[in-house]
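in:
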């Protein structure tokens, strides 16, 4: 929200007050409170008829400093609140030397000169990261009497801002006005399904505004050198989170707001949906599943969209008996005959025609208006009401319906909607309606996730969720919502996913082929490549199917080949998933996350890193032309073995069997032995693909066990010394192989037990089970 009219004036009806100086200080060992008048005080009379801001400063964790500015402290505290996790045993340090006051939390410090005009300096590594300057702390009152607390933090020259949730507008947020307010706006508008009041910059820090309701951002869009954030409240609380790297920032931010859960290994396989309004029944489902099998396309999950239930009755959690007369038998057959997992669509609404409406209304499980009436409207479902998840009994009632489905054989739920939450209502627990609008999705997804964790066990719970707020990363997976079916929508979807990844979310997907409309064969095939090089992969549409043979035979081949490629990459991808659970580093990473010291990477939003070592540049053109940037070093095309020297931009043209997919210089990419499914023993028979090994370095490759949150089933250490490449194996359960990509080599001291094969990609060296040591001598370029 903008309060000023240019540099000199305020907007009509707005009166703003800003902290001007420090009048008094209260100090303890680990925090301090500043009392800041909003005018320069030179005599006692100036203390009359004028506000005094209370500004509390403390630290919940190393590298994190909180600031809370309050105008009137007597406002009733009404939830909800984000559940934050302070670091156990952490204690900040306060020092005072003359008028200089400093709060230190690890490498991050907050410095205040209490004798100078108002200024909060956040410093680290001997430099000022950002500052709350003359207009950095204050409040504004508008003509209608609304009261807003606001903060401003300075932007340096060349400083770029990222994050704020899944946003489909330009990836770099500078110059944008952003409202953190849940909305069902598709992917082609400034609205967002997943709004997160957290941003980070390329200057080594992030900022989390601890307010679950509407937060209005002006990112260099009101004062061009400032990020302003404001809330309609008497107080404003924010945390500055130090890195110095973007990964470090996300590590500390997700430690504060919650780490992503680790999805089950099977969820990384290909999901196929019935699509939304298409006509389908059990025969359609069987035709789709058989069609995939006949075309040798491995399928991991089948998803039943909305019309598995009867029309006008969403959600009643009951299979339409006219279409699915034997749901238990159908689910059993899908599992026994095709080894599939099953997902079904749900939302948090109860339509009036559903028998559950009267039941929920009678027990007080539905959100009500102030006069006691159930809140209802006809948008989406006729007479639709909303489950009140602030009522523990309502949560348990809703969970009970899901437990029944899990008992039938449902493995996961697509938790759709959760954005259109009314504010003219009364919540069971007395929560503030404005704050609950964004936060509702957290209760919704948590309820469903807990059911799956209870029913399926730790590490087996997974959602396909559309809405989220800060902390929602704990309940993966999230997908990008309703996009159109063209290249522009594909690109905007990627922007949203990269922004979400820089907001603490580790796992993200999108509708392969687009949702609205029907993609051309060219769009479908390029989206398949992108989708199967994402953390999670789902074929889904609105009014048309997304089975590949509906497009052309080449689409079948592309879907088959890239599904099988993803399965081979599972030991690599699941290690990236573990990193998301351990530190909050997303599986799909904006280039700035991996290359913060390369300014050319700071604005890139049409390519990304998949895990640590794979660069993916989706093709957004019908003729296969793609422009992409390669960072420094010798990169290797994963599919062709071609070596590419960076740094620099490249323009290339690709057929539908390929795209820019490059292995990082010196990387070792583990390929699993099987391409039939996502879940198998990844360590047994693994092939280590070694790309341009750097002399004098050692690369450690950890092969996870499916379902393990951390640790490794096997560990390999690959090093190069001159012309000798050495691989040490620890815990390898069977035979393993090394592919020296783009190189000619011969076995070293391991002798005749090593089988050597020259391939189109390089030299393959295979060793028998029990081998813990392999050396190879490079004999050619």
């Amino acid at each position: 929200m903008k309060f000023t009219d240019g540099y000199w004036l305020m907007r009509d009806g707005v009166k703003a007050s800003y902290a001007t100086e420090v009048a008094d200080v209260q100090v303890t060992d680990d925090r301090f409170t500043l009392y800041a008048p909003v005018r320069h005080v030179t005599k006692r009379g100036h203390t009359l008829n004028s506000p005094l801001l209370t500004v509390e400063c403390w630290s919940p964790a190393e590298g994190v400093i909180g600031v809370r500015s309050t105008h009137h402290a007597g406002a009733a505290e009404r939830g909800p609140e984000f559940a934050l996790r302070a670091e156990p045993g952490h204690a900040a340090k306060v020092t005072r030397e003359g008028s200089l006051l400093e709060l230190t939390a690890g490498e991050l410090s907050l410095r205040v000169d209490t004798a100078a005009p108002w200024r909060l300096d956040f410093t680290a590594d001997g430099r000022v990261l950002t500052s709350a300057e003359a207009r950095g702390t204050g409040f504004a009152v508008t003509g209608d009497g609304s009261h807003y607390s606001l903060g401003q933090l300075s932007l340096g020259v060349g400083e770029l801002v990222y994050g704020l949730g899944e946003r489909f507008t330009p990836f770099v947020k500078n110059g944008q006005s952003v409202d953190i307010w849940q909305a069902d706006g598709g992917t082609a508008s400034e609205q967002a399904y997943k709004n997160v009041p957290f941003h980070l910059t390329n200057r080594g820090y992030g900022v989390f505004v601890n307010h679950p309701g509407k937060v209005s951002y002006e990112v260099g869009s009101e004062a061009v050198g400032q990020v302003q954030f404001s809330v309609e409240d008497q107080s404003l609380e924010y945390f500055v989170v130090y890195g110095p790297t973007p990964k470090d920032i996300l590590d500390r931010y997700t430690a504060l707001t919650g780490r992503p859960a680790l999805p089950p290994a099977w969820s990384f396989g290909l999901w196929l949906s019935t699509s939304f309004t298409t006509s389908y029944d059990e025969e359609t489902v069987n035709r789709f599943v058989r069609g995939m099998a006949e075309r040798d396309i491995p399928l991991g999950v089948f998803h039943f969209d909305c019309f598995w239930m009867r029309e006008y009755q969403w959600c009643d959690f009951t299979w339409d008996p006219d279409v699915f007369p034997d749901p238990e038998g159908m689910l059993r057959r899908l599992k026994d005959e095709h080894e599939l997992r099953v997902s079904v669509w749900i939302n948090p609404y109860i339509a009036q025609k559903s028998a559950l409406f009267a039941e929920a209304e009678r027990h007080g499980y539905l959100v009500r208006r102030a006069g006691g009436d159930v809140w209802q409207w006809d948008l989406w479902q006729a007479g639709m009401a909303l489950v009140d998840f602030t009522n523990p009994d309502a949560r348990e009632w809703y969970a009970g319906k899901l437990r029944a489905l899990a008992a039938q054989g449902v493995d996961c739920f697509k938790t759709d909607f959760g954005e259109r939450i009314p504010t003219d209502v009364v919540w069971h627990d007395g929560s503030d309606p404005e704050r609950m609008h964004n936060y509702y999705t957290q209760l919704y997804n948590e309820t469903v996730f807990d059911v799956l964790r209870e029913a399926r066990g730790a590490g087996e719970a997974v959602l396909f969720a559309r809405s989220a707020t800060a902390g929602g990363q704990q309940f993966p997976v999230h997908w990008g919502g309703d996009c159109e079916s063209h290249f522009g929508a594909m690109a905007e979807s990627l922007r949203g996913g990269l922004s979400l990844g820089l907001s603490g979310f580790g796992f993200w997907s999108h509708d392969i082929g687009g949702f609205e409309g029907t993609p051309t064969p060219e769009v479908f095939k390029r989206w398949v490549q992108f989708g199967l090089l994402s953390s999670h992969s789902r074929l889904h549409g609105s009014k048309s199917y997304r089975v590949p043979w509906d497009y052309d035979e080449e689409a079948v081949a592309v879907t088959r080949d890239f599904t099988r490629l993803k399965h081979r990459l599972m030991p690599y991808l699941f290690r990236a998933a573990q990193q998301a659970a351990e530190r909050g580093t997303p599986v799909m990473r904006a280039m700035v996350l991996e290359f913060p010291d390369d300014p050319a990477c700071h604005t890139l939003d049409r390519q990304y890193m998949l895990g640590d070592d794979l660069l993916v540049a989706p093709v957004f053109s019908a003729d296969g032309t793609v422009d992409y940037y390669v960072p420094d070093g010798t990169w290797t095309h994963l599919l062709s073995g071609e070596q590419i020297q960076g740094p620099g931009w490249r323009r290339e043209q690709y057929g539908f069997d390929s795209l820019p997919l490059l292995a990082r210089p010196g990387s070792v990419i583990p390929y699993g032995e099987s391409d039939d499914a996502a879940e198998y023993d990844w360590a047994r028979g693994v092939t280590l693909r070694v790309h341009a090994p750097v002399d004098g370095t050692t690369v450690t490759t950890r092969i996870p066990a499916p379902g393990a949150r951390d640790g490794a089933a096997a560990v390999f250490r690959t090093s190069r010394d001159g012309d000798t490449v050495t691989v040490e194996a620890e815990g390898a359960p069977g035979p393993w192989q090394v592919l020296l990509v783009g190189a000619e080599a011969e076995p070293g001291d391991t002798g005749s037990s090593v089988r050597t094969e020259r391939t189109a990609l390089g030299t393959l060296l295979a060793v028998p089970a029990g081998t813990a040591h392999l050396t190879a001598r490079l004999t050619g370029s």
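note: The longest strand covers residues 625-637.
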